[in-house]
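Side project, low priority. Logging it here so it doesn't get lost.
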Amino acid sequence: MNRLFLIHTLTLMLLAIVVSALAGPVKVTLREVCEVESTEPVRVRDIASIQPSGKTSDKLGDIVVGTGPLPGASRIIDAGYVKLKLNAARTATEITVAGASSVTVTGKCIKLSPQTLSEQAREFVVGALPQDNCTYEVNVERTPRELVLPDRAGVTIRPRLLSSALRPGPIAVALEALSNGRIIAATSVGLRIRAIAEVLVTTATIRQGEPLTKANTTWEQREVTRMADTVTIADQDNMQVWVAGRLLIAGKTVTKRDVVLPPAVKRGDVVTLTIKCGKVTLRSTAEARQDARLGDSVSVRTPVSKEDVRARVVAPGQVEINR
């Protein structure tokens, strides 16, 4: 039984050799330029066509002749080296190598241009800007370098602010390329945010203490990028009770530091004084010794004591002491 099995096996081996010899030579035609997977083994089938097809051709196609270069980088594989690798396979079939004398292999990649990256950063900032009374313009001041990334699924770009807050003026946005949650490349974009709003502007000189009115102010569209606490159209109801806190010249953009509420109590006014002590409440009149606004502490003098005491302004003409 064992003898018959041995004879059968030898017969099959001889038959395979004869079939291989009768199959004719295999022709490997090298391409001049090829794109291959980055940092992955480069096989003969990646850089050449192999004819005719069959088991021998599949075996030769699996032979590794190098490693793929980095994304976008190139490397040359010489035809003589490919021949050595093919001959080392020791097949009974005759192998003919034709085509290019060398193969330039380039790592497959995705190239993101500076323009594409700049637009991604700009869209990120536009989407993060507040919805308020300002109109914002976002312009690119410094374009990033081109990103060359592996041509594989799952590669994403994550924008990130390099500053702690998003505010008008120059800002920088980092663009990080992620693969499986790991940063594989990064660059940055320089942007500038301009803020434009309808703001209050003086049309005449307004002295300290004078009220702001329609006669001495107007509303205009102006850039407020470098201005803080600008009085915008949203504050128009408050304008009716504001007075100038300092001298304002004509043509000035008004800020909230330039205006104050008028005094609720003026020096010399007779005010209602309320004294609260536990559950006991006493009311009297007093004379204001200075100007004061709502919430301010003011000095008042009662006609009985003829002494100054401190009270808090709680309403126009009304002050209060809590004990």
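Brief comment: DSSP finds five helices and 22 strands in the chain.
Revisit when time allows.
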